[in-house]
Amino acid sequence: MPLPADTDATTPRHLRDKYAIVGVGETTYTRGSGRTTRALGTWAIRNAMQDAGLRAADIDGMLSYSGNDSTFAPFLAGDLGIRLNFYMDVHGGGSSTEALIGIAIGVIEAGMCKCVAIFRSMNGYSQVRIGGTGARSAAPVNGDQLHSRAYGWQSAGQMFAPTFMRHMYDYGTRPEQLAMVKVVHSEHASNNPKAYYKKRYTVDDVLSSRIICKPLHLLDCCVETDNATCIIVTRAERARDLRHTSPLIRSVVGRCSKPRTDMHYQHGPISRVAGYYAKDILWPNAGLGPEDVDATGAYDAFTFTAMIQLEEYGFCKKGEGGEYVSSGITRLGGKRPNNTSGGHLCEAYTHGMNMVIENVRQLRHDVDDSCPIGPDGKRQHTFDYREGGCRQVKDIEVTCNLGWANPMTGSAMVMRRG
Amino acid sequence: MALKGDYLGMALTVDDLDIENLEYFRHCAAHDFHLQQCDDCKKLRYPPTTACPWCTCLTSTWTRVEGKGEVHSYEEVHHAIQPAFKAHTPYLVLLVDLDTQKGQPTPDEALRVVGNLTTPDGELAPPGLVKQIGIGSRLRMVFTDVAEGLSLPQWTLDETAKQPDKPWRYPQE
């Protein structure tokens, strides 16, 4: 049977707005959780179930990602009395969140299950250090790593730095422009009671912090924390019966990559990142463009990763990311705030989950700041963004998450208010 | 046969079945840089791979390549991850565009070979030398001998080449 003329593998427009994120949850963000990734994971999943108003019998799918530093889905499902019709634990870190949301839509669409809990559980500070020190630095070096780790080229910051340095060379991007990413996200975190770091920083604080790996100062780098996070995905019609007015998924891109994934630096320009390719899937599928987005969640493993993705996805011209992130646009109260929870630089390091969770709460118009709770159980947002105050974006309708694995691979998602 | 060697506290191993890396390092041990040249499209490639990234051809011929080029990007590591590198900070990780096949098959592509900045003897460079190198610096390949039959290609300043007046360095220095 011939396919309809408008069928295009990259544009499943018929799924636009058909799926929703109905529940989100997390553990406390801490260092030294004092429990296993299994215990952290069940805690986060249960919080997300309660947030959605779902019972164990309502969830029949599970997805997780890790780098051999977590517990597999069947154990967590068993602990919570969830019987699975589908599960999969995939290898990977940053950019997996949006990719797994896309997979969840796919398996539900295929009739394999009805409701999928996606989790990431990690003791990223107290067990397997995300910065790469400890066990990961002691492992033997073979295969492709003979051309990287053997040269003391291993941690995320070290692996990405040539891209960042070349961006400064190609476009004149300045250290003080990047520092503004940390400054702005720290302002947002100061209005987030659950953020691990709530202190507000200045540009001077960032530039005078010690160099980790030039061009990265200590405060250009994200935190390392222990935590688990969970996102529950199901069909939009099912979402209507649940607790919240759930955000709808417009478009999702998963692990879209540059050429030469064996060593992406072989194919330039090396100051270009995966968003260059991903944007051509994201925006047509969403039926929207960057100008329609009210808030972004650009993965901030480093100040640079937020900046370089925002420009690559078209929020400004290529090469003008430094100007964009230092202009005030990305600040609460600005035209298009980025990472209103404080992101990986300040709230916690979750491999991308917390930035999606934040945008879900933003789109419910019910972000968990310190504003007073009214008689209807909802916060009475003041929109006063001074330290310790509100972080709800006023009248927010559309968000965009930009997930980062490394310069060569990224994922993205557009959501709208339900 | 597998290759093994200890280098700055790391156990480097090239496995028996990893025939591409075994051949690559066999030439490096002789201080003679070779890359795979595709038997069909004749393009060189780096690092060792199991097929041609331009034409999918599975066979190639190891071909001698001149170890000269220009710094395309760099980083200066102050916080080492591997403990034994801490004694050598700051050290540079360099991406060097070889002169051979530069700008081919597209203008943005090059054989971009990784290495640290070292002395001509293959020792990690002292801080004074680290400060002299930036984007545009002209370098030549040298080798660090790790063990019998196992050497790493590295980069050192090309004393005979014309150097840029001021190689581009990170602005906050």
Report on this structure.
The complex is a heterodimer of chains A (418) and B (173). Chain A has 418 residues and is an alpha/beta fold. Chain A is 30% helix and 18% strand. Chain A contains 13 helices and 11 strands. The longest helix of chain A is centred in the N-terminal third of the chain and has 16 residues, at 37-52. The two termini of chain A are 36 Å apart. Mean pLDDT of chain A is 95; it is low at 1-7. A 5-stranded antiparallel sheet of chain B has the order 8-7-6-9-10, with helices on one face. In chain B, strands 4-3-5 form a 3-stranded antiparallel sheet, with helices on one face. In chain B, strands 1-2 form a two-stranded antiparallel sheet. The N and C termini of chain B lie far apart (47 Å). Chain B has 173 residues and is mainly β. The chains are: A alpha/beta (418), B mainly beta (173). Chains A and B meet through α5 and β5 of A and β2, β6, β7 and β8 of B.
Q: Which spans of chain B have pLDDT < 50 for at least 5 consecutive residues?
A: none
Structural class of chain B: mainly beta
* Alpha carbon gyration radius of chain A: 20 Å
Number of helices of chain B: 2
Q: Estimate the global geometry of chain B from the Cα principal axes.
A: globular
H/E series of chain A, N to C?
EHEHEHEHHHHEEEHEHEHHHHEE
Order of strands across the main sheet of chain A: 1-7-4-2-3
Number of strands of chain B: 10
Task: Bin the strand percentage of chain A.
Answer: 15-25%
Report on the biggest sheet of chain A.
5 strands, mixed
According to DSSP, the number of beta strands of chain A is 11
Give the biggest sheet of chain B: 5 strands, antiparallel
* Distance separating the two termini of chain A: 36 Å
What characteristics describe this protein?
heterodimer, A: 418 residues, alpha/beta, five-stranded mixed beta sheet, four-stranded mixed beta sheet, 11 strands, 18% strand, globular, disordered N terminus, B: 173 residues, mainly beta, five-stranded antiparallel beta sheet, three-stranded antiparallel beta sheet, 10 strands
